[in-house]
Amino acid sequence: NAGVMQNPRHLVRRRGQEARLRCSPMKGHSHVYWYRQLPEEGLKFMVYLQKENIIDESGMPKERFSAEFPKEGPSILRIQQVVRGDSAAYFCASSPTMGQVKNIQYFGAGTRLSVL
Amino acid sequence: TQLLEQSPQFLSIQEGENLTVYCNSSSVFSSLQWYRQEPGEGPVLLVTVVTGGEVKKLKRLTFQFGDARKDSSLHITAAQPGDTGLYLCAGATSNTGKLIFGQGTTLQVKP
Questions:
Q1: Which of B5, B99, B103, B105 to mutate to test the interface with A (most CBs of A within 10 A)?
Q2: Which residues have C-beta within 8 Å of that of residue A23, sequence separation ≥ 6?
């Protein structure tokens, strides 16, 4: 049973380029969450998606960042015109259920983005 | 804004010692999860506690959820070098899927 798959594991971009991070949830999971971990900091929630819907994007920066989870294919976190401050580890998590007390999220290995 | 204060941030102990990591908040959580993260990897779920006062044991690790569901602790008995890593607590609310993470505790167990 494959876990949450993220790719690429490492991504290097120059300032001004676009970064696309992909996440395939665990089989049977329809809820996807993106978190960002800056150096020496904890994980911060960015966005929560279900298939074709953004449920909560309260942690997303207002500009340059977008996320989608299409009916077919992986969830994509897109960062346009990257800046050095975007350098971080980006983690995706998935869960099978929502609206219940027990909300268990399983994490991928992350994508480490470096902006030169 | 919901916050989780995790302490201590760093802990270096000798093999065989006991330790406790604390996670505190002024907010009530519907559940609280503990993760362990290795360098270069994602967080791996250790346990989820749901009921106030709940205690769960995982070999030498004991997890407790406070009666008011605002705090939690992780106690490790007779720590081993293999326990070295970053330990994260994360609280979930019932009305949204997002997890609120603590800052993490970096544990080093010396042989």
A1: B99
A2: A4, A5, A6, A32, A34, A74, A75, A76, A77, A92, A94, A108
